[in-house]
Amino acid sequence: MLMSIDSISKSYNAFPNPPAKVLHDVTLNVDTGEAIGLVGESGSGKSTIAKCMLALIKPEEGAITYDGIDVIHAKGEDLRRFRREVQMVFQDPYGSLNPRMTVEELIGEGILIHKLEPTAAARRARVAEMMEMVGLNPNDMDRYTRSFSGGQRQRIAIARALVIRPRILVCDEPVAALDVSVQAQVINLLQDMQKKLNLAIVFVAHDLAVVRHLCEKIVVLHKGKVVEQGTREQIFDKPQMPYTQSLLAAVPVPDPVVGRARRAARRLETAN
Amino acid sequence: MRIVHPMPDESTATPVRAPLVTVDRLTVDMPLGRSGSSVRIVDGVDFTIGVGERVALVGESGSGKSLTARALMRLDRLAKLSGRVDFDGIDLLKLSDRDMGKLRGSSIAMVFQDPMSFLDPLMTIGDQVAETLRIRGIGKAEARKRALAVLDELGVDRAAERLDAYPHEFSGGMRQRVVLAMALVGEPRLLIADEPTTALDVRVQDQVLDLLDDVSTRRGLAVLFITHDLGVVAGFAERVMVMYSGRIVEDGDVASVFAKPNHPYTQGLIKAVPRIDQDLNTLYAIPGAPPPPLARPSGCPFHPRCDQRFDRCGKDLPALLPVGLSRVACHLLDGKGA
Predict the structure, then answer these.
(1) What is the total count of domains within chain B?
(2) Which residues numbered 171-190 in B keep a CB inside 8 Å of some CB on A?
């Protein structure tokens, strides 16, 4: 087990109202090299869990352990190692990349911070190698992000996260802002990286079809609680909880014959 | 369960409906800052919408789908429109602003993606729904009565009590119902829905789609549904038009387009979407990204990304021509038309 989240709870202040509890007793594990999907509707707490996993916020109760490190109380060398080995990719590739930095600076920043390469030339070589790996042209290293499309920017964000060789990549809705024809490129890239680098991916998404495609393990969340977790087959083929069933039934299918049959069946069920 | 796809032919195709809207060579130019120059976002589209027909307009960001729809209502003051938009015998592009204003809400209405930014937070739900009618000179009591009837029709619980509530007291799905009620209270014949369910959670989206489905059937209301979600298209629409880089590249009934997409872009889109009901090994990824309107490639705008291109594709712009029961703009299909 690479990371374990053990019954964490988290509240946000909602003054003048009492604090709003957004996570109740959440427990889940991430294993080396596995893709795990956190799914749920807005307000289910899926992004809050991702932030806790990244130590961007701290839960009030429970424990998070990463490879022997107590994440909530980590300091010094432990914290530095955690920050290097657990990386993130955000939803909005326009807001998450500094427009005043070149692609080389953006991708190379982590190498600099963690002092992974002694010379500028070595750093540049590693950035070039990484760009190649995610399907970008290394000749574009000195350009700024404004001249890149959304899909290319998300590749830059992924390269920036992976260049320091993390073991877990936490992605919060990484394809939600992309066009349909570009989404598939980024999904395929993440899948490819997972296999090539034996990377664990925590994939936070509201799009269940994308999660089914990418993730071997699924955690279904509702109002801050884990409703159900299991393998892809368990969740998508034999969901046990009524909430999971209703969530899956509502996902539209891009096929008029199947889609209409599903909707007709579901409406009949609600009518009865 | 094995699903057999019936191949639609003349006998199973949806009946031809009397046209409600006929759009002919519509172009939309948007000004570029104050430079005086402009950029053509919508580059000559032709289509019809039948009475009571549900048509989906699909495309990626920048394809011109929203501007096409907004042009039907002449919503963008800065946009320069040309061509013809015939609504029930009237050319909308020739109407005075005043006459166009009268048509909005009463003949054509529109709902948008984000209900919260569309609702006035300081005005009660009842007043907002009744506003369209009040503007048309209908008395307060009567307008309120009709607002209540529409909210009821759209499944807003305890609508009578909630007429005097404010938008913040409603959930996202309920707000979208209120916005729909505002659009429908004037009894339009065409509803333009621009990504109305994109901001909603799937279960709420599902309810709103059911609702639209019912209202459209009951009222014989034509719906132009703008979306990027092919799942929504397949479940809701009768016909689908696919836009790419300012032009329609394929237009056909939903069953045929999904069973046998003709345009390589449509084929790619369908293969690129993961599905909830089956496992796919790898997704097909269309290479590259849609071109910005200022840098459209020569010839067919899709040719740099197309895996079936040949020399002609970079030179000539393909016209939208009939192929079977659909229309397709692709050189591969030239000469194969009806």
Answers:
(1) 2
(2) 172
Domain that holds residue B302: 1-7+19-107+188-338
* Interchain pair A251, B276: CB under 8 A: yes
> Digits of tens for pLDDT over chain A (272 positions)?
999 999 999 999 888 889 999 999 999 999 999 999 999 998 899 999 999 999 999 999 999 999 999 999 999 999 999 999 999 999 888 889 999 999 999 999 999 999 999 999 999 999 999 999 999 999 999 999 998 988 999 999 999 999 999 999 999 999 988 888 889 999 999 999 999 999 999 999 999 999 999 999 999 999 999 999 999 999 999 999 999 999 999 999 999 998 888 888 888 877 76
Residue B268 contacts A where some CB pair is shorter than 8 Å: yes
Partners of residue A182 in chain B, C-beta under 8 Å: 60, 286, 289
Residue A76: give its domain's CATH number. Answer: 3.40.50.300
B289/A42 CB distance under 8 A: no
Going from the C-alpha of A9 to that of each of A12, A63, A100, B65, B255, the distances in angstroms are 10, 9, 38, 44, 48
Identify from A149, A154, A181, A207 which residue to disrupt to test chain B contact, counting B C-beta atoms within 10 A and taking the largest count.
A181
Q: Count the neighbouring beta carbons within 10 Å of the beta carbon of residue B206.
A: 25
The secondary structure of residue A224, as a DSSP letter, is T
Chain A residues with at least one Cβ partner in B under 8 Å: 41-42, 149-152, 179-185, 187-188, 191, 206, 208-210, 212-214, 232, 236, 246-263, 266-267
Report strand pairing: A225-231 vs B239-244.
unpaired
Which of A150, A212, A260 faces B274 most closely, judged by CB atoms? A212
Q: Using CA atoms, how far apart are residues A244 and B117, in angstroms rounded to an integer? A: 31
pTM confidence score? 0.89
Q: Determine the structural domain holding residue A260 and report its residue range.
A: 241-272
Give the angle subtended at the CA of A101 by the CAs of A103 and A88, to the nearest 5°.
70
**What is the CATH number for B24?**
3.40.50.300
The answer to whether B284 and B267 are in contact (CB under 8 A) is no
Model ipTM value: 0.86
